[in-house]
Amino acid sequence: MDSDNTLKTPVLVLGATSLIGRHLLERLKAEDLDPFAISRRPPAGEACWLDGDLKDPHLADHLPAVATVFSLSPIWLLPAALPALKARGMVRLIAFSSTSRFTKADSPDAGERSVALELAGAEKAVETWCVEHGVAWTLLRPTLIYDEGHDGNVSRIARLVQRFHVMPLSGRGEGLRQPVHAADLAAGALAAAHAPATKNRAYDLVGGETVTYRVMVDRIFEGLGKRPRSLPMPAWLFALIMRLAKPFYPGATTAMGTRMGQDLTFDSAEAVRDFGWSPRDFHPRF
Question: The CATH number of the domain where 224 resides is what?
Answer without folding.
Answer: 3.40.50.720
